[in-house]
Design brief:
This protein is mostly helical and 77 residues long. It has five helices and no strands. Helix 3 packs across helix 4. The longest helix has 13 residues. It is flat and about 35 Å long. The two termini are 12 Å apart.
Length: 77
């Protein structure tokens, strides 16, 4: 997402498969179960870029009440 935000187009090689953001998210999810909190800013960026309706409050509700694999898929796709 950083490359897309900074350059305005997707990373030509697909980006990192497991960078530092991924590691932090994994550790926080593993030890606290709260990794979903880190997805809220990403969802906001995607919503602004593609003019999708929604809010941070709605994101919090969806992310906090759905299983991690489901809400991660919704965030990425």
């Amino acid at each position: 997402m950083n490359h897309l935000r900074d350059k305005g187009y997707p990373h030509p090689e697909g980006g990192e498969s497991c960078g530092s953001d991924c590691m932090v998210h994994g550790l926080i999810t593993c030890f606290t179960g709260l990794g979903w909190i880190l997805q809220i800013p990403l969802r906001n960026d995607v919503r602004e870029r593609y003019r999708v309706r929604g809010s941070g409050g709605g994101d919090w509700l969806v992310l906090s009440l759905t299983p991690v694999p489901v809400n991660t898929t919704w965030t990425l796709y």
